[in-house]
Each structure stands twice: as C-alpha cells, then as structure tokens.
Amino acid sequence: MTELGRLYGLGIGPGDPELLTLKAHRILTTVPVIAYPISEKGKALARAIVADFIHPEQIEIPMCLPFSVERASQSYYVKAAEKIAEHLKVGRDVGVLCEGEPMLYGTFIYLFQRLSRQFPTEIVPGISSTMASAAMLGVPITYRNDVLSIMPATLDEITLRARLAVADAAIIIKLGRHFAKVYKILDELGLLYRSLYIERATQTHQRILTITEVNATEVSYWSLIMIPSFSLPD
Amino acid sequence: MTELGRLYGLGIGPGDPELLTLKAHRILTTVPVIAYPISEKGKALARAIVADFIHPEQIEIPMCLPFSVERASQSYYVKAAEKIAEHLKVGRDVGVLCEGEPMLYGTFIYLFQRLSRQFPTEIVPGISSTMASAAMLGVPITYRNDVLSIMPATLDEITLRARLAVADAAIIIKLGRHFAKVYKILDELGLLYRSLYIERATQTHQRILTITEVNATEVSYWSLIMIPSFSLPD
Predict the structure, then answer these.
(1) Lowest CB count within 10 Å: A69, A88, A223, B8, which one?
(2) Which residue of A has its CA nearest to B120?
(3) pLDDT tens, position by position, B9-28
(4) CB-based contact B101 A149, cutoff 8 Å
(5) How many residue contacts between A and B have a Cβ separation below 8 Å?
(6) What's the mean pLDDT in A56-64?
(7) Residues A96-151: tens digit of each pLDDT
(8) Letter string b/e over residues B186-220, b meaning 16 or more CB atoms within 10 A of that residue's CB
(9) Among A93, A109, A124, where does a domain finish?
(10) What is chain A's mean pLDDT, rounded?
(11) Residue numbers in B near A22 (CB within 8 A)
C-alpha cells in the first residue's frame, strides 16, 4: 500500500519573498507538487512571490478559486481539492501556496476543510499582511490592554460602524470597492485622522497614501486601513 | 562624521526557530550587535529561540525589561534604549530580538518610541503566536465576513465580557493568573465549547489542553485561548 502524501498549507507572507519563513522555504523547495490560486485572468500572485524558489521539476497545479465563496463557486473548490487529492493518494506531498497567513481569511481554509480529514495535513504559519503593514507604516499596532479588531470591508455598514466604534485598534482589510463606505464611517466616527492607508504591503508595487488622498474608484482588494492604538506609550 | 547605525526590530516568531523569516535570519546573522529581553530571573527566551544562529563575535545586550510598563519600570526602558543608542551612535547596526510580531503588544514598541526618531529604524515583521496557534491547533481562525478580535486577558471583567459577547472570532492572550476570570466569562457567554487552549505555541514545551482540564493556578503568561469563527465554511 502506498503511504499517503502530506498536505502543506504554506503561508508565504504578504509579498516580499524574504518574508517567507525558513520552514515554508524548506518545504516549498522540497515538495514534488505545488498548488496555487490563479485569478480568472490567469494571474498567479502567490506563485510570483516565490517564483525564484520553484524548481522546474516540481509539478504545478494552478487553481482557479473565486474570491467570493458563493454556492456557484463551490465547484471550483471541489475540482481543486480533487486535483490535489490525486497526488496525495499516490504518496506525493503537496504544498499549497497561501498568501499571508493560511488560517486567516485564506481561501486555503476551504481546501483544508475538504482534505484534512482524509490526508495528513500541516499548516505552516505565514506573515499576515495585517501584521506586515505595521512594519511598513512604521507604527505600533496595539499595546497594553488594548483590543485589536481585524475586519473585512465587505461587512454591512451597520456592523462595520458598531465594531469600529468600540475598537481600540482596528485593521480593515479587503477594501477594494468598499472604500467609500468605510471612509464615510471613519469620517462619522472621527477616526480619519488616525487612519493609515496601505496597498500591497511589502509587494513591489506597495503604495502608502494619506487617506484623504485615496481615489475611491481605484482602491485595490489588496489594500487595508490601519487604525493603531490611540494612546502612545511612554 | 560617523554614519549612524541602523536599528532593527527583528520579529523572530513564536518559538520554533524555523519560523524566523529569511529576512530576520539574514539580518540577525549579519548585525554586529544584538539586544534581547531577559526576565528578572535572567531567562532569555528570545535569545534561546535563535541561539543556533548567533555568532560568538556578535556583541550582546541583555535587557531587563519588566512586562508591566508602570511608571516604576520606565527607568529600565530608558537604560536599555541608552545602551542600544551607544552602538547606533558609532555606526553599529543593532538587531533587537522580538518574540512574535514586534508591533503587536511587543515590549519593543517602548524602545521604538524612544529610538526611531533619532536613528534609522526598520521593523522586520514576525509570526505572531496568535497566528501560529491556529496552525498548531489545526483550526481556521476566521473567514468570510467575520471579525477577529485579539485581546489581553489583563482587561477588566466588564470590558472582556462586552468584547467577547460581540466577537465572531477571538484570541485571548497573556492568560497567566487571569485564566479563572476569563474562564468564568466564557462559561457565562456559552463560549467554552468553542474555546481552545494552547500554551507556548511552537515552542519545545508546547501544550494543548481541553479548556475544562486546565489548572487555573498553573497557567503560563505564554498561553492563549482561541475561539475560532463559529460557522464552518463549506
């Protein structure tokens, strides 16, 4: 009987290839098979991040995984899980490239749910863009007794406002076309002056803008707003 | 005139030396001076994590930095910042070892506030124990439209209860002697069955316990409770 292959959820960090962990780098460079998401237009951001580490002998599985996990998108995940399972069944380890941290808002979670009961699975944590943004912006996120809330801009206006109203520190992710809604709420709550905007943190095309200068029609999905803790420590 | 040295806040991750990033590893192994916190008993956890990467020629600055940043502790931070500044002034780069992520509840923040206006400073993000715990527990933290709140157990009971009552997913850090208080709140809110307990995630002495089996008098500062998002994704 063939031993089953091992499934790795490889956190590869937010964009700078040097932000891979030693562990993710070791596994990435030794597994026989790698899988990664591609956009509908065929772009493979995760693969691009680690391109220099990939060997020509490695088998590659590009997976078209829609961001929105609606019922209609389920078939994409089923198909991707099946392709990965084919290799695991015959004993080949598969490393799934996950931007940022696999277990935090990651599309990997949907593959994990489908495969981890059947196959030995290991998650390798990665640097989340939420954390890397603090380093790029040069600001502490939170300290002492403060609560940090991480929330997607895709939330409805009422929930977003309620959560932001009580947050000591907040990070609002997945801005994209939701920027104008978020901006309005931050303005109403008097939080604009504490809000920092960053796009594609640590990636080649990283941009940091004053929040009042952001053009709402041009905001990327890969941008976030950070509201650091209010009180500066002594 | 001598060029100033560069201050690095080096995120070294939660405990497993392989969870250093390639960047933190490169800088750690090339800076002439490293600084790290030691406990009042002289224990140096951060140094122990990266012990295999340190060269004998590197100058070491052990810093006694009390966890509680009360007024009485300020002098410790002043003294540590001065010692680091001595090297930066004469052009020596200094890498400060930071467990987890430097900008998230890190004692490094207090050194950063004292030194970053005077000296060129770079933060290298690290894997936070909050993120690594998900990998070790084998559970997704949060997905879709859920809000994740990270909060210290040191908060007063009323604030903790209010924040946990509205959290979709939560991570409660710095448990230590606050475990009993947190447990009571989780029980009252009906959250115990979703609560996962982990101690020293990814470190040699990592322990995962069922929350009802934890002995409240033996809980480490380095333990946390994770309450993952409620709804499992399809």
Answers:
(1) A69
(2) A138
(3) 999 999 999 999 999 999 99
(4) no
(5) 178
(6) 97
(7) 999 999 999 988 999 999 999 999 999 999 999 999 999 999 999 998 899 999 99
(8) beebebbebbbbbbbbbbeebeeeebeebeeeebe
(9) A124
(10) 94
(11) 17-22, 25
Beta strands in chain A (DSSP E): 7-11, 33-38, 59-64, 94-98, 121-124, 148-152, 169-173, 196-199, 207-210, 223-227
Residue with tokens 């924040």: B163
Chain B residues 18-37 with a CB less than 8 Å from chain A: 18-23, 25-26
Is the minimum CB–CB distance between A140 and chain B shorter than 8 Å?
A: yes
Candidates B147, B166, B168: best to mutate against A (most CBs of A within 10 A) is: B147
Q: Are A64 and B101 in contact (CB under 8 A)?
A: no
Domain encompassing residue A209:
129-227
- Taking only the tens place, the pLDDT of each residue in B57-110 is 999 999 998 766 555 678 889 999 999 999 999 999 999 999 999 999 988 999
ipTM score? 0.95
Record: contact A234-B154, CB cut-off 8 A: no
Q: Are residues B147 and B103 in the same domain?
A: no
Residues of B in Cβ contact (< 8 Å) with A135:
9, 11, 102-103, 122-125
* Last residue in a domain, options A70, A94, A124: A124
Is the CB of B135 inside 8 Å of chain A's CB atoms? yes
Phi–psi pair at A161, nearest 5 degrees:
-60, -45
Our CA-based measurement puts residue A56 at a distance from the nearest CA of chain B, in whole angstroms, of 22
Contact A155 B145 (CB under 8 A): yes
* pLDDT at residue number B228: 96
Q: DSSP E strands: which ranges in B71-200?
A: 94-98, 121-124, 148-152, 169-173, 196-199
B148 pLDDT higher than 70: yes
Do A106 and A176 belong to one domain? Answer: no
Distances (CA, A) of A154 to A80, A105, A129, A213, B57: 25, 12, 17, 21, 51
Asked if residue A126 lies in contact with residue A116, where contact means CB atoms within 8 angstroms, the answer is: no
Contact B147 A124 (CB under 8 A): no
User: How close, in Å, is residue B105 to chain A by CA atoms?
Assistant: 4
| Same domain flag for B69 and B115 | yes
Q: Do B134 and A125 touch (CB under 8 A)?
A: yes
